[in-house]
Specification:
6-stranded antiparallel β-sheet, DNA-binding, homodimer
DNA sequence: GAGTGGTCTAGACCACCTT
DNA sequence: AGGTGGTCTAGACCACTCA
């Protein structure tokens, strides 16, 4: 499959027909990972070393690495190198357990950092969600979550100050839902969840150790109490390779004829 | 930000500092889409035309397009061109409505093609799921789903022939769950769903009009009846830019002290 | 057959991480 | 200071689509 300038090498073998060179290199690295020659967390040889061992142009090597990154097998640390990715964390949006709890259940080590807490006027869209007037104050909490020391998720949580006055003065590294329940009597009875693959903006990507455009999964959670009030509005930006969604549903009774 | 060979152009303006050229081009195209100058479904200028208008090397143009593709704003048709992507379809895994129904609810036009139907021996993993012996026969149905004529999803459904004898002789373009219920008395009471971003293999990508490595979302659905038997095992490979997941959950009663 | 995207080469300079 | 990945150039040939 080699193309471009004639390098004097023989034409591709029959079994290589139709398989681009970058995928062949991808396969080689993927095999090294599967076979354990490259362990989870291990650093790959540098692009220039891979280039020399292929041999191939550096762009071709980067194409192979980008492919492995899209598959979630490897990730990069900006200007540091490429690393074998650990297995993803399983996330069940129907469960009440907070991040810390369900990561621990999977024998991984969770971490949390509160990046910022502020009061800010609601944008039009936010006001709509909380059924407030645009410009009304909202608590905003930005948090970073890690698994085994690796940042996997950035979230921004919005809370109506009227429902949870003084919330920002609390320690916010633990379960916010728990605080809202015990301190403010806000019990969540309904969750609306939206998920979609996305590309992360420069800020978010940088916090997760990546570059603008890093593939991500956006999880938006809107939590309601029994009176239908929005108690918590949470936007979580995950690294796409760090998460796996799992839902277990018992089907509700169907209306007659359904 | 221009780098590499000196092209005689002036250094980057202050507001461009730190913003790579490919992102600037991305922004320009994204603005054209937002502003409606490029409508949904419209074809973008060719890479070589974009290159001439930027101006930039073709690799840089392709980087900008790949970024937009990752964000779901544009997609490509192999060797045909780049196109503005339509809005994604919303998918609610908790609802019983089949693909055709919920696509229609969103005022889009669904389509279905049965690609293949066969009986094949269960692999080890499949046997495990169905609690059968490895090598036991399983019905396999491959289907392609389209929205507004565009392929968005390839699925393979496995069914235990003992539970639904003769299933393959039926018309399979409609709701399989419906057939299993009305013809075979199999009522699904529990769904286990797994979702994760993935890269699509060459076959799947080709069926969705893409190249190997196309970004996708894998949705695995395991359906059980009241006796806990696996009635249906379905692996859906979606184009990542064609789907948005939405779940609305009423929280179950908590155990005391929860 | 003209034009498209897909793959590839062989360089270069830069910002930043690591030591 | 040396090495890394990030960005960019300027070409090339190929497989395929489309009119």
């Amino acid at each position: 499959m080699r193309q471009g300038l004639d390098t004097g090498r023989p034409p591709a073998a029959a079994d290589d027909v139709g398989r681009p060179q970058y995928l062949a290199l991808r396969d080689r690295i993927a095999r090294d990972i599967d076979a354990g020659r490259l362990a989870s967390g291990a650093r790959l040889p540098s692009e220039r070393h891979l280039q020399a061992s292929a041999p191939a142009a550096r762009g071709t090597v980067r194409q192979a690495l980008a492919q492995l990154e899209a598959e979630g097998l490897v990730h990069r640390r900006d200007r540091s190198g490429w690393y074998v990715s650990p297995p993803p964390v399983t996330y069940d949006p129907t469960r009440r357990a907070g991040f810390m709890a369900y990561v621990r259940e999977q024998k991984r080590t969770p971490g949390a950092v509160t990046l910022a807490r502020s009061v800010r006027p609601a944008t039009e869209a936010q006001a709509d969600i909380f059924r407030l007037a645009p410009g009304a104050p909202l608590y905003a909490i930005d948090r970073l979550r890690t698994v085994d020391g690796r940042p996997v998720l950035v979230e921004r949580i919005l809370v109506d100050p009227d429902l949870a006055p003084g919330l920002l003065d609390r320690s916010l590294d633990g379960s916010l839902t728990e605080i809202l329940k015990t301190d403010h009597g806000l019990v969540i009875v309904r969750n609306r969840i939206d998920m979609r693959p996305c590309a992360l903006d420069a800020d978010t990507a940088a916090r997760l150790g990546g570059r603008p455009g890093l593939a991500g999964l956006l999880v938006v959670r809107t939590s309601f109490d029994a009176q239908g009030r929005v108690v918590e509005y949470d936007r979580e930006y995950w690294r796409h390779d760090a998460i796996r969604i799992h839902v277990d549903l018992t089907v509700r009774a169907e209306p007659a004829g359904g």
